[in-house]
Amino acid sequence: MKIAIIFPPYNHKKFSENLEVVDEEFGVYPPLGPAYAAAILEKAGHSVILIDAKALKLSKREALDRVKKFNPDIMAFMLTTYIFHQTLSWIKYLKRDVNVPVICGGLNLAYYPRETLSHKEIDFGIIGSARESLPLLVDAIENNKDFSNIKGICYRKRSKIKLNPPDSFEEDIDKLPFPARHLLPNNKYYQFISKKKNFTIMLTAKGCPYPCTFCPIGRMPYSERSTKKVLEEVEECYKKYNVREIDFFTATFTVNKKKVMEFCRGLKGLRKKGIKIDWSCRSRTDTVDEEMLKEMASVGCKRIYYGIESSNLEILKKVNKYIKAEKVKKTIKLTQKYGIKALGFFMIGNPGETKESIEETIRFAKKLNLDYIQVMRTIAKPCTSLDDELKEKIGKDYWRDFVLGKEKEKRLPNIWCDLSDNEIDYYLKKMYTKLYLTPKYVINTILRVKSFSELERYLRAGIKMVFTKNEY
After folding, report:
1. How far apart are CA 358 and CA 112, in angstroms?
2. Angle, in degrees to the nearest 10, between helices 60-70 and 84-97
3. CATH 3.40.50.280 occupies which residues in the chain?
4. Which long-range contacts (CB under 8 A, 24 or more apart) does 281-284 make?
5. Contact, 285 vs 328, CB < 8 A?
6. pLDDT tens profile 342-390
7. Which DSSP state fits 356?
8. Where are the beta strands (DSSP E) in 117-196?
């Protein structure tokens, strides 16, 4: 069958954890979920196109022209809760002219399958992994088979929504094919602080073993890929797609030291074959040591993004992330000692947050001498402990009602501290300006710029940060 996978553009949302300038400027990333789905379908013998309308800056009309030219039997979309209605508007628009079955996947289906299929334009949903269920579903559509025995899907039968949940959300991710990057515009992707092209992202594991209250990833089953498979994908990216920089999106890349050291040895082997990449990853400051950092730096690790969140220990206890300030300081120093740049993730509006605790965190962040920061609002993301608390407090599930169309996009209440929305936004901008917009930092940034496009990104973001008023 012919399947068109469409990845619509999206923009900043009122309930976002980031300031608008961050959401709009931080980067354009390859849509890994749709690329994995495309690879699964191609492996099953189907013909697939993947239209990344965000990276290509396509209008609905331009995307429709591409879909009609392909003349698909099925259209497919990835749904996330944040951009549910933006994606739904594209589904409605395209289906008016291309009246074929629509399959949707993504985390939103795991949380809200019935609510998703309450929208008549969506015919089928994949609940959980698509590796086995997606090819079976497409085969059933093609051959007019019964859907009732296909696990991990939802569908409509005689106007009633039927759910066939998967046996488990655990998965051997080594069995997944590599994402179908040959269907993507690989020269269009970048990150705000990336230096080389082509740029891509990659996973070495799914889920996270840590139970932070603000993050849904810790509730997913944790599964690691084999180092052999990761290295094979790195080599493919380098040779086939001219990738020279990779950001590993794994939630905590350094959780397994043995795997990290094995990976670094593998990269040394690739370097002997002339394959050299720059790379970055996400980590906790309590999961690295000097030996690991030295080894990572020796094989091209250029940046590590550390979740620091706050300097206040009582706040960190409340979000299940108890890491002492001295450990954070030591880790940042060791990281920079080996030439790896350190980015710190911080959150404002945490449980028990006060103006004093925020000022304390800002002072702490300045002393760390970080190379980059990203500051976020503490929000109740879907399927997190904070979301559970919010449901109990307000007596309803905002995200469920949002998917159903009963709730509009809006700023969610912060029930964990006494700061107003404007105060939280004020301190977000203050932290950015205190750490970024200093003469020393600006001069150092200009000196390490590698291209005009990189400089342009910095200038555009800086101007927006200074001149944009508080959003609420």
Report:
1. 35
2. 50
3. 2-164
4. 281/247, 281/248, 281/250, 281/253, 281/254, 281/305, 282/248, 282/249, 282/250, 282/251, 282/252, 282/253, 282/306, 282/307, 283/252, 283/253, 283/254, 283/307, 284/210, 284/252, 284/254, 284/255, 284/321, 284/323
5. yes
6. 999 999 999 999 999 999 999 999 999 999 999 999 999 999 999 999 9
7. H
8. 124-126, 153-157, 160-164, 190-191
Quote the tokens at residue 128. 């959980």
**In sequence order, what are the residues at sequence separation of 6 or more whose Cβ sits closer than 8 angstroms to the Cβ of residue 299?**
264, 267, 268, 271
Angle between helices 421-436 and 452-467 (to 10 degrees): 140
Superfamily of domain 189-378+414-467 in the CATH hierarchy: Aldolase class I (3.20.20.70)
- Cα 133 off chain centre by: 23
Q: How many CA atoms are closer than 13 Å to the CA of 345, on its beta-carbon side?
A: 18
pLDDT score at 450: 66
Kindly give the pairing relationship between strand 124-126 and strand 102-105.
parallel
Please determine, looking at this structure, whether the domain spanning 2-164 carries the CATH number 3.40.640.10: no
Separation CA 150–CA 25 (nearest Å)? 41
Q: What is the pLDDT of residue 8?
A: 97
Q: Which amino acid is at 432?
A: Y
CA 107 to chain centre: 11
Could you say which residues of the chain have pLDDT below 50? 472
- Of the candidates 362, 355, 356, the one whose C-alpha atom is nearest the C-alpha of residue 310 is 362
pLDDT of residue 471: 53
Residues of each domain in the chain carrying CATH 3.20.20.70: 189-378+414-467
Model pTM above 0.90? yes
pLDDT at residue 151 in the model: 94
